[in-house]
Amino acid sequence: MTDSVFDDHDALGLAALVREGEVSASELLDEAIDRVEATDAELNVLADRYFDFAREAIAAGLPDGPFTGVPFLRKDNGAEIAGLSSTSGTRLLADNTAVETSVLGQRFLDAGLVPFGATAVPPLCVNIDSDRAPYGACLNPWDLTRTPGGSSSGAAAVVGAGALPMTHGNDGGGSLRIPAAWSGAFTVKPSRGRVPSGPIYTEGWMGFAVEGVITRSVRDCAAAMDAISGREVGVRYDAPSPARPYADEVTGECRPLRIAVLEATHSGEPFHPHHAQATRDTADLLIGLGHQVEAASPPVDTGRIVAELFKTVAVDVANLLDDVAQERGVPVTDDELEASVATFRRQGNIVAGKEYARVNEVSMETAYALDEFMQNYDLILSPTMPGPPPPIGEVYRHENDAEALARHLDEFINMTMVQNVSGQPAASVPLWWSPDGLPIGMMFSARYGDESTLFSISGQLEQARPWWDKRPKRNDI
């Protein structure tokens, strides 16, 4: 498809076209369906299609919001909408349909977005590769032999391929940032308590998991965050309100910042040479923009963090499967589960109460350590991922061994999981591409509650080193 409005407009731009009468919401939807179907044929990005729901929503009249008439895909996990499927990528829930609309799902609808499908995820979102999902492996738009990352796999691949400007995703250990970094897209993992996730799922992974969007432009992400942020009734976390809309931060002047830059992973391992060079180049770019940059690393024990995060996820999986068994009156057997899900359940069933209680202790210790470290810095800079995306299926080598699986996942979530445990916000910015043509996202993490600084620096970097025209050469949508 050539000369498409999707090639030249982000989500806010598309909404403006609808508002000005230059294109109708129905026309946008029809073209979006064509683009996403073409992308799905190449990359396997879809978990389900809601085309009739979308057409009926347009016919009924859309609410007046910042994104009125813009086609949108939800991740096959979270942002539930009553009557639409929500399988979380596991065959056990293949027939599951949301019985009510979540707070976040309603906020997306109130913003005028038109959901017309769900994107691919790994089984129960407990990995970074959707290879074992019922709908098969989602492929990286920049290299079809590699994973786009996860667990927001299809969401990032759709945006990275240029099919749509914005999709829904969530992040419990890096699930927004990892695929955004490997697919060439932008995202912000918000602070804990910023965006609602209930009432269907109240507090994902002890509050480690948060909801958000993946976008091509910084301003789309900021406007979406303005639309979906705000306290949810009954939750125990409530991130402080920003001084002004995030959208204003993107276009406003970015003040000089003091930025700590990591020269190795949190475990002390070296970055891949391409990612190390990208980090140095980003530091130089920031210095040229007037920021103060120095090498420094926060004192975090990622070995302990990943162990506690793994326990949290395992217990959550075990509890979910117990709920399914209770609801249907028949136990859930391992034969009904993907191997990685069965492994997490076995581990979750043996975690003692006192072990689980320690998870909160580690979370607080990590938050304290990072908060103290960031008294001297506005931001921490690192590559989002320590290296390039692995081949499809590689991360499942240890899916039957809990300890080996945890160690293996640590290799990939070492940089991103820290902010989930501490509750801090973090952005992944698609600033660089490797000599092999693979995207390299750069991560900025801020103090708890300070998404404003993330949007400010991201907007400045988007102007200094634009990425809008970066598209995979093979993609012909």
Defining traits:
477 residues, three-stranded mixed beta sheet, eight-stranded mixed beta sheet, alpha/beta, 16 helices, Amidase signature (AS) enzymes, single chain
Give an account of the 3D structure.
40% of the residues lie in helices and 13% in strands. By secondary structure, it is an alpha/beta fold. The chain has one domain (5-464): Amidase signature (AS) domain (Amidase signature (AS) enzymes), CATH 3.90.1300.10. The chain is globular. 56% of the residues are buried.
What is the CATH topology? Amidase signature (AS) enzymes
Strand content: 5-15%
Number of strand segments: 11
Name the helix and strand elements from N-terminus to C-terminus, one letter apiece.
HHHEHEHEHEHEEHHEHEHHHEHHEEH
C-alpha geometry: globular
CATH class division = Alpha Beta
> What is the helix fraction of residues, given as a range?
25-40%
Write the layout of secondary structure elements.
Elements: H1 5-8, H2 11-19, H3 25-43, E1 46-49, H4 51-60, E2 71-75, H5 103-110, E3 114-119, H6 153-160, E4 166-171, H7 177-183, E5 186-189, E6 210-215, H8 218-228, H9 246-251, E7 258-261, H10 273-288, E8 292-295, H11 302-328, H12 339-349, H13 353-373, E9 379-383, H14 402-413, H15 417-422, E10 426-433, E11 439-446, H16 451-464
Parallel strand pairs: 2-3, 7-8, 7-9
Antiparallel strand pairs: 1-3, 4-6, 5-6, 5-10, 9-11, 10-11
Helix pairs in contact: 3-4, 6-7, 11-12, 11-13, 11-14
